[in-house]
Amino acid sequence: MKLRDLLEGIACEIVQGDSGVEIHAIHFDSRKVGKGDVFVAQRGVSVDGHAFIGKAVALGAVGVICEDVPESLPDGVTVVKVANSSDALGWMASAYYGHPSREMKLVGVTGTNGKTTTATLLYEVARLAGKQAGLLSTVCNYVGDEKVHATHTTPDALEINSLMRRMVDEGCEYCFMEVSSHAADQRRVSGLDFDGAIFSNITHDHLDYHKTFRAYIEAKKGFFDRLSAKAFALTNADDKNGMVMLQNTKARKYTYSCKRMADFNCKILERHLDSMLLLLDGSEVWTKFTGDFNAYNLLAVYSAARLLGFEKEELLPVMSMLVPVSGRFETILSRDGIMAIVDYAHTPDALENVLSTISGLKKDGKVITVVGAGGDRDRTKRPEMAEVACRLSDRVVLTSDNPRSEEPAAIIEDMRAGVPEDACDRVLAITDRKEAIRTALMLAKPDDIVLVAGKGHEDYQEIKGVKHHFDDKEIIKEIFKL
């Protein structure tokens, strides 16, 4: 393609050189650049791509997209100055792959909790309705039936468009994707043609990156602000920041709620440990989910599907066929009646939601919680996680999650700061996660519930930069001898 074709829709402040130069590939990693490629110099969190422009040119780049024009470059290299290189990369990636998002109905899901469940269940709804669909999620990406391993909540712009092109080529009519606050802030979704956006909720998370809660909200709101007038914007009216998402969007505005009047409503009629009866849009539906948070997720899925044109009579039977996503409130029962629940809850709010659900469903048994916090991430939520666990559990075992480059014992000490004084005798600290799970299950008696929180679907533990195989569900089944 010619460089000028890749720059369609991008406001270029300066163009030095021939914009008609032929481009073989686009790269933002200078190490991957080859002869005839264009290099996009992005300002990253820890590295500034502008420092690698010389290297990219030496490797054969014939075009450079940047925010600051270099003082000198060899003849024959076209330089384009833009306001935001990351935004430009999104548009260029979309153009390079032939704008695949324009050939499908694309819906993005954002929020602190519920993104994976909502996006995945929408994918399942479309498939159960006989449609071809794609999925971009934390747990896994799907191109139709084909499973593609996920490395980030939202991949980079080039990978997104590459996957979407494959989806279109496979005949997919729909694509559902998680849009993390990082991805929105870093413009990884720029250039995509969204038909709808869903906001689930927003609570304390990712302050290591965004620094302030206001910046975190603004990152998610920015996703809605950039929607077109043809898209729908669907928000949770029960979240105190839900209506903020709709303030400046051009999209058609809709709300969903379990507590007040909204465009789409839901009420829980019966609750069980493995199911609940919902009054969904005025009709009773049995679902294979439990908990208020899942009622919201299912309502968001139903509402979005209706806005995409699915009929109510078609949807209601499908809603009852859906099953929980891997690592989201997954239950494992031992032979002697101890129930273990594996959940991805890794924020204070998510942990409170899961424990509140368990507390409302348990009969006579106790609740034992195994919980840790990730290393090299938002430290301020660590004591909050411990406080929630202590408040809503009978026993708590503090342990490792993914310590990454940090010392596990230091992370646990941060969590201990949130343990109330009167709860200290109910709290154990065991650094080894497998031993922590084993101890919690040994403490449990029949009818007790053991929540193993934080990792959910993950099948690894990252320690000192190395990923080791570790699956909470496998460990529990091994201890239960199942």
TrEMBL record:
Positions contributing to meso-2,6-diaminopimelate binding: R377, D401, N402, P403, R404, G454, E458
UniProt modified residues of type N6-carboxylysine: K220
UniProt pathway annotation: Cell wall biogenesis; peptidoglycan biosynthesis
PTM description: Carboxylation is probably crucial for Mg(2+) binding and, consequently, for the gamma-phosphate positioning of ATP.
Localization terms from the record: Cytoplasm
Domain Mur ligase N-terminal catalytic: residue ranges: 22-97
EC number: 6.3.2.13
GO molecular function term, any single one: UDP-N-acetylmuramoylalanyl-D-glutamate-2,6-diaminopimelate ligase activity
Cofactor(s) needed by this chain: Mg(2+)
Alphabetical list of InterPro entries matching this protein: Mur-like_cat_sf (IPR036565), Mur_ligase_C (IPR004101), Mur_ligase_C_dom_sf (IPR036615), Mur_ligase_cen (IPR013221), Mur_ligase_N (IPR000713), MurE/MurF_N (IPR035911), UDP-N-AcMur-Glu-dNH2Pim_ligase (IPR005761)
Alphabetical keyword list: ATP-binding, Cell cycle, Cell division, Cell shape, Cell wall biogenesis/degradation, Cytoplasm, Ligase, Magnesium, Nucleotide-binding, Peptidoglycan synthesis
Top EC class of this enzyme: ligase
Catalytic activity: UDP-N-acetyl-alpha-D-muramoyl-L-alanyl-D-glutamate + meso-2,6-diaminopimelate + ATP = UDP-N-acetyl-alpha-D-muramoyl-L-alanyl-gamma-D-glutamyl-meso-2,6-diaminopimelate + ADP + phosphate + H(+)
Keyword Cell wall biogenesis/degradation set for record: yes
Motif window: Meso-diaminopimelate recognition motif: 401-404
Mur ligase C-terminal domain segment(s): 327-456
Mur ligase central domain sequence ranges: 109-304
Amino acids binding ATP: G111, T112, N113, G114, K115, T116, T117
Coiled-coil segments on the chain, per record: none
Binding site for UDP-N-acetyl-alpha-D-muramoyl-L-alanyl-D-glutamate: S30, T153, T154, S180, Q186, R188
Role played: Catalyzes the addition of meso-diaminopimelic acid to the nucleotide precursor UDP-N-acetylmuramoyl-L-alanyl-D-glutamate (UMAG) in the biosynthesis of bacterial cell-wall peptidoglycan.
Family indicated by similarity: Belongs to the MurCDEF family. MurE subfamily.
Protein name listed in UniProt: UDP-N-acetylmuramoyl-L-alanyl-D-glutamate--2,6-diaminopimelate ligase
Organism: Butyricimonas hominis
Annotated gene: murE
